[in-house]
Structure formats: C-alpha cells, structure tokens
Specification:
12 helices; Endonuclease, Chain A; 434 Repressor (Amino-terminal Domain); 2 domains; alpha/beta; 49% helix
C-alpha cells in the first residue's frame, strides 16, 4: 500500500467513524481536538496528507479502534482483535541480497525509509568492500548484493520514495584511516570507496540523503524503519522486527532526533567524504 492508498483508506475509515458516532462533523472534530476546517480538509478527495500521529492516535483512542485499522494496516477495527504480532524475530540476517529486505523495501515503496547502518550504508558499498567486510563472498556474490542495494536507491528516485541515512561521523573517519575492522583493507580501496560514496550521494540527492551525527553526543544501534509498515533492528545474525504502530513511532522519533543533532547535513556529506579520502593513503 502506497502513501496515496493509505490516505484514501484513512479517509474512508474516518468517514465510517463519523457515521458510527452519529454526530455532526463539527461535534466529531471537537471531540478529536480538530478544527472543523481541518476535518473538512481530511475528508476532501483532493487531500493527499495524513494528520499528525498524535491526532490519529487520539481519534483511535476516542472511538476504540486501532491506529493500524485507521491506516489500513489491519482489517480488524477493534483494538483487542488486532492480532498482528508486535515483535517477530527473523533469523539468518547475515545473508547478502536478503529476500526479506528486498520485500520490506518493496512494501515501503512510496514512503520514507529511515536507515541507521551497522558500518557503512549498504547501498553505497563497492564490491571489494562488501567482499572484505563479510570475508565470505566472492566477487560475483558481492556484485549481486550491490545490485540489490542499488535497486533500493532506484526505487527512492523513481517512486516518490525517500531514503534517509544517519550514522556517526566516526564511522567514516575510522574507515578512512583504516582502523579497527578496516585495518586489513587496502588504502586504495578505501579511497575508492569514499569517492564512490561522495559521487553516489551527489547523484541521488535528494531522494537519498545522508546525515552524520557525532558519536560522542548520540548513540544508535543499527535499524531501519520501512515507512509505517515495520521497523527492523539488526542484531548480528538476526532481525528484531516490530509491526506495531507504537514501536514504529518510537523508532521514527529516535531517528528524527539523530537528524536534529546531525553535525553534517546531506548537502555537505559529499565534501566531507572527499576530505576524508585524503587520509586513505
């Protein structure tokens, strides 16, 4: 379901709630903490935006329905009968070109994907870095992984989607200097990788945006929020996948906080990476 379909579903189900409540639109708006004009806008067939999350939650609570039902993520309108598991543990998360990731990105088409990588952003890695990092892949497998990652960027550029990436500046600094896990990677490959990332960020902006925060000020585990459908926390060889609206909302808020405290904005990221490339010698 894309964003437009979600808005349409929300409008249809909001109309059902107004009908059930057997009150005027003015009364319904007042109970939901909305202006009459705002409610009219939400009910308009020309509207393409959802209200704020707090408003959706307030409407759901007031009328004893689930937020997921309002957004079309559940067919059961009662909170008690919404049986979508809140947490699913997905094993075998270390495989390249993971079919689940491809499916989750496909299902999030039309929405914003928020991504905190474990090391460098997967979508921007060159084959040699993928091969080195896993220590298990041959060049052909690394190329397959790269192709899948680039499809995610292509979706963002061509389907009104967005991908936002946020990670510590130190992740790139350690990589540039060949420290830690990168100590065995040839300096030439590290230089090539940094220049490649800078070029890709410029080419795919604004559909693909990268923010850098200071790891001394903020911390995050690696995770991805796939629009309103799900959020997945990466835990080594498994994913913790959250499907509840509340969990997704909290992780989205955490990500937005990282962005608010970012020291390097997307338009400055390519220049930062090219500066760091000088250390990869």
């Amino acid at each position: 379901m894309d964003k437009r379909q979600t808005v349409e579903t929300f409008r249809e189900r909001l109309s059902q709630l107004i009908e059930r409540a057997a009150v005027s639109r003015s009364q319904f708006a007042a109970r939901a903490g909305l202006d009459r004009s705002t409610l009219s806008q939400l009910m308009s067939p020309n509207n393409v935006r959802l209200p704020r999350a707090e408003t959706i939650a307030r409407i759901a609570t007031r009328h004893s329905v689930s937020v997921d039902w309002l957004l079309g993520l559940s067919q059961e309108d009662q909170v008690a009968t919404d049986i979508v598991p809140q947490l699913v543990i997905e094993p075998d998360a270390s495989r390249p070109a993971d079919e689940r990731l491809a499916l989750w990105h496909e299902q999030a088409r039309g929405y914003k994907v928020r991504y905190v990588p474990a090391t460098l952003p997967d979508q921007l890695k060159i084959d040699e870095v993928i091969t080195y990092e896993t220590g298990l892949l041959d060049e052909a497998a690394a190329a397959a992984w790269r192709d899948v990652a680039h499809e995610h960027i292509a979706h963002a550029a061509g389907e009104a989607s967005e991908i936002e990436v946020c990670l510590p500046i130190q992740s790139f600094e350690v990589f540039a200097c060949g420290q830690g896990v990168w100590s065995g990677l040839d300096a030439g490959k590290r230089h090539q990788q940094l220049i490649h990332m800078a070029d890709e960020l410029e080419q795919n902006y604004p559909a693909y945006r990268c923010f850098l925060f200071d790891g001394r000020e903020r911390f995050s585990v690696p995770y991805t929020v796939f629009g309103p459908q799900r959020a997945a926390i990466y835990v080594g060889d498994m994913y913790f996948v959250f499907n509840s609206t509340e969990h997704i909302r909290v992780l989205t808020g955490h990500f937005d906080d990282l962005i608010r405290h970012a020291r390097v904005q997307p338009n400055d990221c390519p220049g930062k990476l090219r500066d760091l490339a000088r250390y990869a010698v």
